[in-house]
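Annex B. Sample input.
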Amino acid sequence: MIITVTPNPSIDRTATLTTPLLRGAVHRAQSVTIEPGGKGVNVARALTLAGLDTLALLPSATDDPIVAALESRHVRYHLIPVAHAVRTNLAITESDGTTTKINEPGGSICTATVEALTASVVERATDAAWVVLCGSIPPGMPDTWYSEVVRRLLPLDCKVAVDTSDAPLAALAAGFDRAAPDLIKPNSEELAHLAGVSADDLEAALAAGDPTPVIEAARTLIARGARRVLATLGAAGAVLVDDIHAWVAEPAPISPLSTVGAGDSALAGYIRAEVEGADAPQRLQMAVAYGSAAAALPGSALPAPDQIDLDRVTVSHVPPTAE
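Annex B, continued. Sample output.
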């Protein structure tokens, strides 16, 4: 079983425009889609579509609209009860795929709920192959929560992946020497922030065919204790780095409709490939194929297995740099 954990779930509302977004103007949406969201929920949705045994853990009231949305998509879930409504996030997508996001902070979560969520994760992790911890944290939850959960999961047999940002990511990285996940999945901005480099420089280098700056940035996290880094850089591709090897994946060009959920899909693709027995380059290939497929879909729709085209992703091994 795969457990996904979303401390700050959302209802994702995506409005698609036929014209460029102009600040201060009145726009009329071509279409609007509404999906259950939050990074861990998105991973669970993608893995469920792939037929994998998946359980989404999230704080929510039983009558919240996100519950009906999960049920309609046949996503198994376990709720940690809260009184507030799940937040609503707004994404505005232009015709070229450019996406502007406005994310609500979410309702404040009390100490007892944090403890209940932590206990639920640890309890269910005893039967899990993977625990996937994802997304922002709500007000009231300590920035160190992800780091603490990773530490609590260390004695268990499950693998742990984390995809977060900002202060929770910094706190996680600060504790890599004590408790590091099996996989961390930063995007270019998150990787650049942790490594102290420029995200624009990382993306430009990879787009130009030079993965070295991205690999070097990822290796700074490996040196601090991270086990594997899956760095996703949008249309430029992705890299997978461990303590010995590095691979780079180049996707075929697509016509993007929305980038919402593309990174979450990439993480789902990696997890799917791993539990199906794929080796490291195959896991990277699946991750990028999933991310590309998601970006080619409208709103926050996620790809099914028949929409994944592995042949459109090229993976290369990058030899270690001579000392």
